[in-house]
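Still learning. Any example?
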Amino acid sequence: MVTDRETELAERLIKLHDGRSYRELQEMSAPPKDPNDDGKITEDMYLDMCRDIESEMGALESIESIDCLPRNDSKLTLWKAKYSKSDFKVFWAIGFDSETLKVQDVLVQW
């Protein structure tokens, strides 16, 4: 089950993919467990992703919870979002650390 706080955080995270909120997203994110991890999203990667979302999908119109997958020490929440330029839904998977509620994983697929 997704809590109200996790819903609030997931919706905030999705909305912050606007091309202007990299630092705010960094504050929501857990530091990598491995400091040498190449999976860290850079500001340039974030800006590219936001441009892609805007050009392909348009403006965010709605967000709806799909489900959640409990893991040992985290929870993967699943969401679908509707954007203005497409009839297709965008799939967001957002993983939260169970203790801190910091974002551990983000996957976006359209």
